[in-house]
Amino acid sequence: MGSTDEFLSAAIGFPAVIFGAALVVIICFWLLVLAGAAGHDSFDADLDTGPVGLGGVPVSVSVSLLIVFAWFGSLTGTVLLRHSGTDSTARAVLAVAVLAGSLLVAWAAVRLLVHRFRRFFPAEPPPSRLDFVGSVCTIRTGTVTTTFGQAEVVSRDGSTAIVQVRRAESFPSAAGSPVSGPGAEDAPLALGGSGLLYAYDEDGEFFWVAPYDAALDPGPNR
Asked: Please, are residues 86 and 3 in contact by the beta-carbon 8 Å criterion?
C-alpha cells in the first residue's frame, strides 16, 4: 500500500474520521469569517472555555486548534497502530485509547499555546452603564420627576434594560441646546415618550434624562 493510500485509509478510519469531520466544519467556519459572513468571536457568548484552561482567547481559536491537533494526533496514532501488528480485537481497543490520547495531548498543547499568546487577545471591558449615555430611551413610568422615573433602553447587543431616570429643572435638549426656565418643567416626559440619557449620576445610580424629539435632532451632518 502506497503512502498516499495509507494516509487516506487512516484519515477515513476510526478515530481520525471523527476529528476529520470536525476539521471540515472548522475550515468552513473560517472561510465564512474571511468572507465577512461570520465573526471570529461568534461563539464567545455561548461557550466558556475558561474552566478547562483555554480561556483568554476567542472560543473559535482555541476550539479550532484543539480539533487540528487532535486530528493530527489521531491520524498519527492510527498509522502507528496499523504498523504495530496487533490483531483486530486489540486494535479496536487501542483505537479508543488513541481517541482519548489525541484529545488529551491536543488539550495540553492548546492550553500551553493559549497561556503564551493570550496577551495578544486583550479582554473586552465589561459592559458599563456609561455605555447608555447618549442613548434614546422610552419612558416606562407615568411621568419622570427630579426624584422618580424609569425608562427602557436598548443596548448595543439588542437586549433591553430598565434604568432609573431623573429630570432636572434645566437640561440639554436633543439638539444640544439647554432647556431651562418655566418651559422645562412642562416638557413632556410621560409614559411611552422618548427621552435622551445625557448623563449618569454614579452616586445616585440613575441617568439624567431630557425630552427627545427626533424631528428636532439636526443629526451629525446637518
From this structure: no
Tell me the whole-structure pTM to 2 decimals. Answer: 0.53
Q: Determine which helix (DSSP H) or strand (DSSP E) holds 153, and give its type and residue range.
A: strand 150-154
- Are the C-beta atoms of 111 and 118 separated by less than 8 Å? no
Provide block-wise average pLDDT over 10 residues at a time, the chain (222 residues).
72 88 93 85 76 84 93 89 79 88 94 82 64 91 91 84 86 43 55 91 91 61 41
Query: What distance lies between CA 93 and its chain's CA centroid?
Result: 40
Please give the single-letter amino acid code of residue 16: A
CB 148 within 8 A of CB 191: no
Q: Name, in order, each residue with C-beta under 8 angstroms of 79's C-beta and a sequence gap of 6 or more.
A: 6, 7, 10
DSSP 161-216: EEEEEE--SSEE-TTSSEE-SHHHHHS--BTT-EEEEEEEETTTTEEEEEE--GGG
